[in-house]
Amino acid sequence: MFNSLSDRLSATFKNLRGKGRLSEADIDGTAREIRRALLDADVAVPVVREFIAKVKARALGAEVAQALNPGQQVVKIVNEELVGILGGKTRELALAKQPPTVIMLAGLQGAGKTTLAGKLAHHLKSQGHTPMLVACDLQRPNAVKQLQVGGQRAGVPVFAPHPGVSSETESATGDPVKVATEGLAEARAKLHDVLIIDTAGRLGVDAELMRQAADIKAAVGAHETLFVIDSMIGQDAVNTAQAFNEGVDFTGVVLTKLDGDARGGAALSVASITGKPVMYASTGEGLKDFEIFHPDRMARRILD
Ligand code: GDP
């Protein structure tokens, strides 16, 4: 991902670095090229507009005029502003003072929630936690089974509505809010310190899905609500993220499918549009294809 954006920005900066002094026209030209590169990478228009305004204001100011190497200084500004739209500092998981810490996953169907649940459990286990997974996606046929397989791979127990759901086409029945609260009681009884709740997604945002997710969140008092989003989704990322932000007031974002050839717009838009940090990235289908998201490293990856 980001290959094309990265190439375009590198070419722009190569031009800039060679210049001893920068005229206003140089800065305008550079801003225009960065703007085009970001729009072509599918970054949301308001995000691009704000980004360019900030970069330009700083580039025309004293920090560049007085710099020994003005071109280099502009590159530094772009880097800093990019870290800013990616959420600033790396955001750690907020652990509850009184365990278990409850983490709920929300997002559209196919975003990668169930896959992520297993990876997150595996990651937390490797850090010494004792997580448990709860299967509250009772809409998608086979989601419970898929979570059970993920849990097994991660070596983490899965609380499910009933164990008989194994057919490829059968979907589980029951009330997801009840399953979540029973899962929480089980986690308390068995002294699991983290609970990860997988919830149902739809192909598009809908009111019922959102209400269900909000009900689960309220019933279990989730400490973290992670919005899981497919980074291939492009310009739709903004509307989807806004809908989930309003619906469940999520605390962090997980970008999935960063291994794909998406142009990267979603990754660059979501944190900025919602004001919520990206916390994790999923980079494949395997248990270990998972990263803590570091805005500074991601910015470097784009600009280097
Ligand atoms: P859910 O409906 O949100 O629970 O989505 P799933 O976890 O079932 O994932 C949907 C599809 O995307 C599955 O085929 C996953 O194997 C695949 N998938 C999930 N995360 C990633 C990822 O980071 N990279 C790639 N390449 N595929 C992924």
From TrEMBL:
It is an enzyme of class 3 (hydrolase). Residues 277-290 form the SRP54-type proteins GTP-binding domain. Coiled coil: none annotated. GTP binds at residues 107-114, 198-202, 256-259. Its main location: cytoplasm. It is found in: Cytoplasm. Keywords: Cytoplasm, GTP-binding, Hydrolase, Nucleotide-binding, Ribonucleoprotein, RNA-binding, Signal recognition particle. Involved in targeting and insertion of nascent membrane proteins into the cytoplasmic membrane. Binds to the hydrophobic signal sequence of the ribosome-nascent chain (RNC) as it emerges from the ribosomes. The SRP-RNC complex is then targeted to the cytoplasmic membrane where it interacts with the SRP receptor FtsY. Belongs to the GTP-binding SRP family. SRP54 subfamily. Part of the signal recognition particle protein translocation system, which is composed of SRP and FtsY. Composed of three domains: the N-terminal N domain, which is responsible for interactions with the ribosome, the central G domain, which binds GTP, and the C-terminal M domain, which binds the RNA and the signal sequence of the RNC. This is Signal recognition particle protein. The chain holds residues 1 to 304 of 535 of the full protein.
